[in-house]
Amino acid sequence: MTASVQDTRTDRLIRFGFLAAMLIFFALPIVYLFSTSFKTPDDVLQGRLLPEAATLKNYPNAFAHVPVLRMIWNSVAVALLSGVITLVIAVPATYATIKLGAFRRTVPNITLASYAAPPIIALIPLFYLLQTAQLMDSIPGLALVHGLMNLPVAFWLLKSFVSDIPAEIDEAAWIDGAGYWHTLFAVILPLIFPGILATALICIILSYNEFLFASALTFSEASRTITVGMSLFQGERLVNFGQMAAASFTGMVPIYLIAFLFQKHLVGGLTQGSIK
Amino acid sequence: MATPPAASFGSDRGANQRKRAEWSMTLPLMAGLAIFAGYPLVYLVLLAFSRSDLGQQFQGFVGLENFDWALSGTNFSGSVGHAILFALIVSLVQLALGLYLAVILSKIVRGGRWLRTIVLLPLMTPPVMVGIAWKLILNPSGGWLNGILLRTGLIDAPISFFGNHDLAFPAIMLADTWQWTPLIVILCFAILQGVPHDVEEAAALDGAYPKRIFWTVTLPMIAPALLSVYLLRVIMALKTFDLVYTLTFGGPGNATNIATFEIWKTALREFDAGLAAAQTLMFAITVSVVTLPIVLLHNHLEKRR
């Protein structure tokens, strides 16, 4: 920016200091959690950034104490399945609303209203619904709830990607005699693929991270997710912080992997969907 | 948005085909939202006017008894106050920090990839793990902050941040700010990228200082967009539950008891589904009342542009 020519030295110093402080602030809890996962119980009490005598034992001990990997697998299964449910429902609906003008006032309004409503509203009724449908305490049951939960988010993220496609493209396909569903699959889907990927990733992360529904709708080892499992770690009277940190960090790895591999898509998806 | 021309085929068959496509494409979404939002709302209204516990619902019509009891006999109204205070404060702090950081980052050309990763990680962390990470930092025994303060001699005895009546709420706000400021940074960065350069450059040529340009030219231009970001953040913050659950469980006393947690306790600890439903309905109404002025202000600013 040309304007920065006139910035004074103090301005630049303040900016640099603030930037550095914020970056340390963002990194510190993750670094400290990671470092604690290598500390012995005595070492934990010292409260130092780095372990004095690093141990690898916390990981196998935590895995023996709680079924960490099983719970991560449950979370991943729920997240992937819910992502599929969300996209299968949201992609055609977004296309029809934006490009065909179907219910073009109703759909945005009801999605917005359902997003603004705190999820605690749905907790008790969905509790009974899953009980009646015999989906209580099951991976498909929680995936269904998460899949529906993320519909408003998916609609608003996809909306801007679909709007970006010039109207001539669909119209040309329609005039050529292609059906609307065919146009969606053959013409539109390839064009908005980056948007679909970003939406899928964000929905998968939201499901993986979700706690309120997961804690009320899953309780057996076969379906309990990692966020619920980690919250139970908290309840114990004698918390072994090293093991807790090891289990937590392991539970964060799948998400950080996504963040690292797809950062461009994630940032792009978040900004497209919210700014436009 | 321009409506696409009604069926280019020009025949009844074309119009029918179009209607069929519109319905088949949107129906699943409508049905999904009906299950996730519509049905719960109806169910809650029925629950709220009945005596219901979690195991046995609808034991009898009780009129407004649940609402009455929620307001007079429980901590509910206090918890709603806490939730609103929490949402408005954290959103404002995060907007200020996030905007400033975005302004700085928009002046830096290099290092984008690494900065982006560091900013993205807190945002992606599961809130339960955010709670655990901050518990490790702030814990009285073995917490990093207490370690630093003790070693530098600033304090003599470790501070229990989550056990202290005055510090518990700020401590939760700190953890929340850690998680969500990155979202604001990303959004504000994109907003700043969308500001046309020529206006700022014209002001610079007139001899205005960069700070002045920001306050008098850039900020008014992006104000509606910033308000949208604030609104989004307030709505999200009103849903906060996980951090309170992992960090304080509403305590000490009721110091950090926010509405979502109070409702959760009523429903799943005291099993009073009727009372919880009444609390939920009142909280939902509060949420709309709190967010409405922000929406109106946003529309007002948008119109003035």
List keywords for this structure.
A: 276 residues; mainly alpha; MetI-like fold; 2 domains; disordered N terminus; B: mainly alpha; 12 helices
Task: Give the SSE layout.
The complex is a heterodimer of chains A (276) and B (305).
Chain A: H1 9-36, H2 41-46, H3 58-65, H4 68-99, H5 106-116, H6 120-132, H7 139-149, H8 151-163, H9 167-175, H10 180-191, H11 193-209, H12 212-217, H13 226-235, H14 241-261, H15 263-275
Helix pairs in contact in A: 1-14, 3-14, 4-7, 4-8, 4-11, 4-14, 5-8, 8-11, 8-15, 9-10, 11-15, 13-14
Chain B: H1 12-48, H2 65-72, H3 76-107, H4 112-124, H5 127-138, H6 144-151, H7 168-193, H8 197-205, H9 210-238, H10 242-247, H11 259-268, H12 273-304
Organism (chain A): Celeribacter indicus
Subcellular location (chain A): Cell membrane
InterPro entries (chain A): BP-dep_ABC_trans_perm, MetI-like, MetI-like_sf
Task: Outline the structure in words.
Chain A: This is Binding-protein-dependent transport systems inner membrane component. Chain A: Belongs to the binding-protein-dependent transport system permease family. The complex is a heterodimer of chains A (276) and B (305). Helices cover 76% and strands 0% of the residues of chain A. With 276 residues, chain A is an all-alpha fold. Chain A has 2 domains: 38 residues; 215 residues, MetI-like fold. In chain A, helix 4 packs across helix 8 and helix 4 packs parallel to helix 14. The longest helix of chain A has 32 residues. The relative contact order of chain A is 0.15. At the A-B interface, helix 1, helix 2, helix 4, helix 5 and helix 6 of A face helix 1, helix 3, helix 4, helix 5 and helix 6 of B.
